Each structure stands twice: as C-alpha cells, then as structure tokens.
Amino acid sequence: MKLPITDTIVFLVYIIGIVVFGASFYFRNKTADAFTSGGGNLPSWVVGLSIFATFVSSISFLALPGNAYQTNWNGYVFSLSIPFAVFFAVKFFVPLYRSINSVSAYTYLEKRFGPWARIYASACYLLTQLARMGSILYLLALPMHALFGWDIRLIIIVTGIIVMFYSMMGGIQAVVWTDAIQAIVLISGALASVLVLLFSMPEGPGQMFAIAADYDKFSLGSFSLNFSESTFWVILVYGLFINLQNYGIDQNYVQRYMTTKSDKEAKFSTWLGGILYVPVSLLFFLIGTALFAYYKAYPQRLPEELQAMDMADRIFPYFIVNGLPVGITGLLIAAIFAAGMSTISTSLNSTATIVLTDYYQKYFGKNASDKSSMAVLYISSLVIGGIGIVAGLAMTQVKSALDAWWALSSIFSGGMLGLFLLGYISRKARNVDAAIGVIAGVLVICWVSLSPTYFTDGAWVQFKSPLHTNMAIVVGTLSIFIVGFCLGKWFGKPRKVRERASLQKASKP
Q1: Are 76 and 220 in contact (CB under 8 A)?
Q2: Which of 413, 434, 467 is the C-terminal boundary of a domain?
Q3: How many CB atoms lie within 10 A of CB 215?
Q4: pLDDT in tens, 316-360
Q5: Of 167, 152, 116, which is closest to residue 394 (Cα–Cα)?
Q6: What is the chain's alpha carbon radius of gyration, rounded to the nearest angstrom?
C-alpha cells in the first residue's frame, strides 16, 4: 500500500518535527542530573500525560485492538485495576521515593536489605524493559509494513537506530514533553477511528453493537474462580500486581516522580496519568470490537491473508491505511510511530539511568564527573538499544505481541514487588529472610511460567502448574513476601533492636 501524497507529507512533517523538538533538548542535557530527572522542574500536567503515555504505547494502540478483535474485552479488566494501584502509589510510593531523593527506584531496597537486593531488582527491570522494547519495535513495524510493504525486520532495525539517537540527544526532558504531545494526538486519533468505524457500518452504529453482542465480544471473561484460565479474576489480580509493581518499583514511573517540583505535584501527575488510561483504553478495545463488526459486515474489504485470527495485530494498521480519511491516516500513523519512539526512548533513558546509578556510580565511579557519567549514559543507551532491536526481531515469531509482552513481563519482573512490599511492611525481616524469599519466589515463577510448556508428558505431567501463566507474578510476589515475612517473624528482630545491638557492639573496645 502507498500513502496518498497528503498523508505522506503529514507523516514526514510530524515525525521530523517531533525528532527536531526532542533533539532540541540536547543543550539542556549537559549534566547527568538533567539527563535523568530534568532538574526536578517539569510541569506536573506534562509529567502526568507522560505517565499516561507510558501506558499508551504501540502496545496499547495496536495490540489492544488486536486482542479485542481476536477475543473479547477480557483484557480491559487490566485497566480496571489501575485506580487501586494509583491510590497506593499516591499514599505510599510517591512520598517514600521523594523522601529518599534518589533517581534510582532501587536505592530503597539497598537501604533495607543490602546491595544484593538492589542488583536483583535492577537486573529484573533491565530484562523487563528489553522485552518491552522488543514488543514496541515489532508493533511499530506493522503499520509501516502495511503502508510501504517494507520488510518488517528492516523497519525494526532502522527504527531502533533512530530511537537510540533520539534518546541520547533529548534525555528525560525530551521524553516527557514529546510524551505529552503524543498523548493528545493519540487520544484524538482513537476517537476519530471509533467514529469512522461506527458511522461506516451499512446499517448505522447500532449494527456494530448487535454483531459484537452476537459473538459475545463485550465479555469481560468468566467470573468463575478458575485460576487456570484467563478469567475476570485472573486478569484483575494480575493487573493489580503488575500496576502496583509499575507504580511501586518501576524505574519509568519512579523517575517521573522525581521530575516535578513538589510532592503535591508528583501526586497530581500520578493520578492524572493513571486515571486517564481507564477511559482511553476502553476506546482501544472498542476499536478492536468495531473492526470485528466492520469486517463481518464488509468481509470483501479484508484481504484473505489477514482473515486468520492470528493476524489480529495487523487488522488495525490495515484499516488505518485503507479506511480512514486522507490526512487523518498520515497523522495517526505518524503519532503511533512517534509515540512508539518516545516509549522506547523512555525505556532507554531509564535503563541507562539504572546502569549509571546502580552499577557504574555504585561500584566503578563513586566520584564520577558529569563528563564520565554522560559517557556511561550514552554507551549504555547504545548497548541496550541494540539488544532491544534483537528482541524486536524475535517478536516477529509470536502470534500476539500483547500476550507475549504480558508473559515476558511476568517472568522477567521476577516478583520484585514482593521484595519491595516485604521491606516496606515487615519490621523484622532480615537480609537473609528476604534472600530466601526471593529464591522461593523465583522458583515458583519458573514453575508457573514454564511447567505448562515442558511438563507435558510422562511422570512430569503431574507436576505441571494448574494456574494460568498470568498468575506467575501474583504467586511469585506472594511467595517472596510470605516466606520472608514468616522467617522474619519467627527468627528476626525489629530493625530498631538490630540497629541498637549493632551500635552497642561497635562501641565495645
């Protein structure tokens, strides 16, 4: 497919404008503090839209409609858990991190349990972000492939290289400001897509709802207490744990808490970014359902190679190219592409920050100058970006990018939320209690995630996990917390008692 000249111009102007705007922040990024936290002077509404845009990446804009087209609204239950996570973030997480005054999300874990906890959590985060970057690069390539017929692998490679350059030039200030622009444009694009789909039905908007109801497309999933399938409760609990992890210990979010001027502004940003996603994600699922009804009413408009359900991620990009008015197509494609670039840039910036603060400055350059710190930020961005490209190429082999992202994020996150909650809630848990809890949690996560694939026959089949793989992060988190909490309760002493004993021992001649 080829874009009309008008759409091509809109696309190029928008992309060039975003890249130039982001790169213009290069002159404000002469120090590591400016590169990683923006000096703590960014407006709260901009940071809030940036938090929202962290959710609304290519994963949301392309994979959520694909998921709704392929199945139903079961995935929307994930969004319903966000307000609960935001409440805990505003009440507990934001004040905690701003009181520590560290740009790293994992400084607290080191203060509570020692260096090993910080290394464990930061390593899990790095792996999660690699999976995330791979998913987004793949989903960015889909509309470009639909537009120009270019090879998806080539698009992933070229896009990754462009984003690495853009991230290194702009720093966190460019990421946050461009995120705000993407948020506004993408919401407008989603609304336009829904309206075009509804009023393109041969019998009017009501036909879409009738067709969707006939195929049970509005179902939120079974309400039975069955944790071996993707029921309402499985997705709700999974979403609650993932979003608590996002707001509680994800560097992308914690780093944004540090970019505002005050606690009050940071809390406002958190509420704005989280609550806004609930209605907007509803739009994405409505798009997927409307696409299903649209191509049921007009089956001849969908190419035969896209009619298989495992091609669901490619339906919306195809409609954007062939079903939207001239001008809107170019703007929407450009916004999706630029939003994906911003999201990947966010991941690159946050992972580079972790490499600098949790590894280089901690173990190699405790008194590092801004020049050497900036060099580390640049080099780590290049290395991590290259690995992200490889992950994106691997994503071309999966059926659903959304399912792959959810599965990988559960495995790589390693239940590190459990470690954070253990340190925050338990007064008695010791370093050794936390370490044993982490080992137990990782083993449980591996069992839930991998046993359905490998324990399929013979004597091993009886050891296969009965739980849905999305429950991996749930049981992993609970395992870490419960094991560490119980060990601390039985064998540990309160922190104040331990600290007093240590001081008495140190004062003896």
Answers
A1: yes
A2: 413
A3: 13
A4: 878 887 888 888 888 778 777 777 777 788 888 899 999 999 998
A5: 152
A6: 23
pLDDT of residue 23: 81
Are residues 438 and 409 both part of a single domain?
A: no
Same-domain pairing of 386 and 438: no
CA atoms of 419 and 440, how far apart (whole Å): 12
Task: Identify whether residues 448 and 405 lie together within a single domain.
Answer: no
Note the pLDDT of residue 209. Answer: 93
**C-alpha 136: how far from chain center:** 10
Element containing residue 93 per DSSP (H, E)? none
Residue 271's Cβ-count burial label (10 Å; 0-12, 13-18, 19+) is middle
The Cα 117–Cα 414 span in angstroms is 12
Angstrom distance (rounded) from CA 478 to CA 213: 38
Domains of the chain: total = 2
Query: How does DSSP classify residue 56?
Result: S
Q: Which domain holds residue 425?
A: 414-509
Q: In terms of domains, do 297 and 282 share one?
A: yes
Nearest by Cα to 272 from 43, 76, 105, 77? 43
Question: Residue 380 CA to chain centroid, in angstroms?
Answer: 20
Closest CA to 420 of 108, 179, 48: 108
Residues 438-472, buried b or exposed e (16+ Cβ, 10 A)? Answer: bebbbebbebbbebbeebeeeeeeeebbebbbbbb
CB atoms within 10 A of CB 418: 29
CA 446 to chain centre: 21
Question: Looking at the structure, do residues 64 and 109 belong to the same domain, yes or no?
Answer: yes
- Is residue 395 domain-shared with residue 426, that is, in the same domain? no
Do 443 and 498 share a domain, yes or no?
yes
The whole model's pTM is what?
Answer: 0.82
The pLDDT value recorded for residue 405 is: 55
- 388, 413, 438 - which closes a domain: 413
Report helix angle 152-198 to 5-23, nearest 10.
110
Contacts of 403 (CB under 8 A, 6+ apart): 67
Cα-to-chain-centroid distance, residue 197: 28
Q: Are residues 255 and 367 in the same domain?
A: yes
Q: What is the C-alpha separation between 115 and 109, in angstroms, rounded?
A: 8
Q: Taking the chain (509 residues) in consecutive chunks of 10 residues, what is each chunk's mean pLDDT? A: 76 83 80 84 91 76 84 91 93 90 87 90 86 82 74 88 81 87 84 90 91 91 84 90 87 90 93 93 93 91 77 80 82 77 84 91 80 88 90 74 57 76 88 91 84 77 82 87 91 59 45
Q: Give the tens place of pLDDT for each residue, 215-260.
A: 999 999 888 888 888 889 989 998 898 888 888 888 889 899 999 9
